[in-house]
Amino acid sequence: MSARKGVVVDDRHETVRLVEPDGAAVPGAQLPSPDRLLAGYRGLVRARRLNEQAGALVRQGRLAVYPSSRGQEACQVAAAMVLADGDWLFPTYRDTAAIVARGVDPVEVLTMLRGNRHCGYDVAAHRVAPQATPLATQLLHAVGVAHAARLKGEPDAVLALCGDGATSEGDFHEALNFAAVFRAPVVFLVQNNKYAISVPLHRQSAAASLADKAVGYGMPGVRVDGNDLAALLSVLDDAVERARAGDGPTLVEADTYRMDAHTNADDAGRYRSDGEVASWAARDPLARLRARLRADDLLDDDAERALVEETEQMAADLRAGIAAESPVDPEELFAHVYAHPTPQLREQRDQLRAELEVTP
Ligand SMILES: Cc1ncc(C[n+]2csc(CCOP(=O)(O)OP(=O)(O)O)c2C)c(N)n1
User: Fold this and answer.
1) Residues 164, 62: Cα–Cα separation, whole Å
2) Which residues are registered as beta bridge partners of 289?
3) Overall pTM > 0.70
4) Which end of the chain is more exposed for a tag (fewer CB within 10 A), N or C?
């Protein structure tokens, strides 16, 4: 399907790529419009800064944890850009940057990672599900929402994100099978960043390519260069269009790499080499699109300076917003578990209350 707009190259597997790592356009590639590429570049720069700032907030003790998407920003930004306002996004714990690219305030998105009991943003207003930590559960929810939209005759499409490790989960199988049988308007975007924490892909799956899994479900599977924003936009546009037209789901595998550790609690140096990381740094999604835009005279020094200023403001607002957030009442821990708290919960609450009176 992607061959209609994109260019298929042979990179171990058939992979859609429009822009080479050095910024050169693949011969014959039909790139998205200049405006779209510029909007995408802005998204990439903001996403990178968000990743850096959130990492710093963890080191300052202001966030409990942050699963970084550095290196995967093109997937994050493209996932948001291909959706219309009425469409739904189903993200994982790693997809903070995609939610921000969809227009949600970074402070709201990071509220959950401060350890708050709620996800921090208005799920219905933004049409972004809460970030799922249990692997692949969000795929079933996404299919349910997509199926409901189809039954109600609504035009909305759904895009669900997951990692390569999540494709080994039973929920992945159930979600893709149901979606294909019922032609649910959903796009599954697997960010194949090569590791499930420390488990490399070859220990995770014996499939030659994760996109090949689509065949067994009876839906198209496309492998795309996940560090090429132009290719991602092209492939995902097609998939969303297909979903909206009633032609059913698509599985998209994005070939990318997690540049940071799994989270701040992980030491990636124990399971991957510096050489491997360096080889992916040379395929950086920002540098690639920047080189393309510069070569086409679509980006100059003034525009870059303005973008840096804007992005620094976003980071400053994020720091201030996280610092300003009011402290959470520890007793809230018990407030939203049951409508009528159990005797055990009441006992635990009383214990905590007594403890807090002694050591507030
Ligand atoms: C159902 C379930 N099993 C195990 C875990 C523990 N766990 C958290 S992240 C992770 C690795 C996931 O890897 P992948 O799906 O490739 O996503 P990535 O973290 O690389 O984005 C695991 C096993 C979990 N969160 N949920």
Assistant:
1) 29
2) none
3) yes
4) C
Q: What is the tens place of the pLDDT at every residue in 45-62?
A: 999 999 999 999 999 999
Ligand 1 pocket mutation, candidates 65, 73, 135, criterion most atoms within 8 A of CB? 135
The CA 66 to ligand 1 mean position distance, Å, reads 14
When the pLDDT of each residue in the chain is averaged and rounded to a whole number, the result is 94
By the 10 Å C-beta count (0-12 exposed, 13-18 middle, 19+ buried), 124 is classed as exposed
Place of tokens 């930590």: 133
Ligand 1 centre and the CA of 165: distance in Å? 6
Residue with tokens 């490790």: 165
Q: Which residues contact 230 (CB under 8 A, 6 or more apart)?
A: 18, 19, 29, 31, 32, 37, 40, 289, 292
Beta bridge partners of 221: 251
Q: Which atom of ligand 1 is nearest to the CA of 191?
A: 21
Catalytically active residues are 258, 262, 271
